[in-house]
Amino acid sequence: MEEYPLTVPSRSAVRVRVPAKINLHLGVGPLRDDNFHDLATVFHAVSLYDELTLECGPPGVRLVLQTPDDDVPTDERNLAVRALTVLAEYANIEPAVTVRLRKGIPVAGGMAGGSADAAAALIAGDALWQLATPREKLHELAARLGSDVPFALLGGDALGTGRGERLTPLTHPYQRHWVFVTAAEGLSTPAVYAESDRIRGPVEASDPEPVIKALDEPDPQALADALCNDLQAATLALRPELHDVIAAGEAAGALKGIISGSGPTCAFLVRDAAHAQQVAERLNYPTKTAHGSVDGAQLVTH
């Protein structure tokens, strides 16, 4: 087994906050030879956060959940653990850390919580170990870990192509407000993609251009009219009760409801923060309110 030189960091702990994402547009193309799908997606980072604290610890990578959840693994299946292992291998150091993870992003909810944690771990490990890894290299390591991880590093709004890892930042002056209805039970992303393939067959991804144009419109109704998710039919086929959730949100006054990513979280676009509160109060479901876009994974310095 290869021995890594031991590196003693000058910091004893670092903390990183990382946001959830939704897909304002999720265009899904045919299955590729590498078992990924070609995507044309517009990512949007929103103000629901996971927080990861990285501390010096015994040899290896130990993860402790601050918000216990049986659906979140704490071993090498956790993307944060894998991210720190990958970063340590790149830097040729021996990891000896404890990860304390506080979840605020719904688990298996179509909001890329696991990918967000991987991005947070890359930023935290780079800071704790004083690596000063070039941003391009962090993006490369992120893409190795998962298709959504690079966007969690970037944040804001971005067009994602390839399997979602090739990013083009999108800039616009408008903040958007959301109500999210969360589910007690998550949904398997591979299962949703498989159901989508069964329903849709090998079709081309839908066009993200209407959403990109709508981001430049001040009226959020323009964005509401453009929201699109090619996976939505598959998610609704697997969870038919979500039809009722979307209908309830729109009846409560939301401009538009859409499945977030592969689901089962439902995202409702509203006009402003006050409107978000009104819609949330009218719903008989667990809700969270948020705004976007926001920055990607960031060190917390206070």
How would you describe this structure to a colleague?
By secondary structure, this protein is of the alpha+beta class. It has ten helices and twelve strands. The strands form two sheets. Strands 1, 2, 3, 4, 5, 6, 8 and 12 form an eight-stranded mixed sheet that branches. A four-stranded antiparallel sheet has the order 9-10-7-11, with helices on both faces. A hairpin with a 6-residue loop joins strand 9 (about 255-260) and strand 10 (about 265-270). Helix 1 (about 80-90) packs parallel to helix 2 (about 115-130).
Layout of secondary structure:
Layout (H helix, E strand, L loop, with lengths): L12 E19 L5 E20 L3 E6 L13 H13 L4 E7 L10 H16 L6 H11 L3 H6 L2 E5 L4 E5 L5 E6 L7 H12 L8 H6 L5 H7 L1 E2 L2 H7 L3 H10 L4 E4 L6 E5 L2 H10 L4 E6 L5 E2 L3
Parallel strand pairs: 1-8, 3-4
Antiparallel strand pairs: 1-2, 1-12, 2-4, 2-5, 5-6, 7-10, 7-11, 9-10
Helix pairs in contact: 1-2, 2-3, 5-8
Summarize the structure.
With 302 residues, the chain is of the alpha+beta class.
The global form is globular
Question: What string, H for helix and E for strand, traces the elements in order?
Answer: EEEHEHHHEEEHHHEHHEEHEE
Which sheet architecture does the biggest sheet show? 8 strands, mixed
N→C terminal distance: 40 Å
Rg, please? 19 Å
Average pLDDT rating: 93
Q: What is the CATH topology of the largest domain?
A: Ribosomal Protein S5, domain 2
Number of domains: 2
Using DSSP, what is the number of strands?
Answer: 12
Note the beta-strand portion. Answer: 25-35%
Text of the CATH class of the largest domain: Alpha Beta
Percent in helix: 25-40%
Taking pLDDT < 50 over at least 5 consecutive residues as the criterion, the unreliable ranges are 1-8
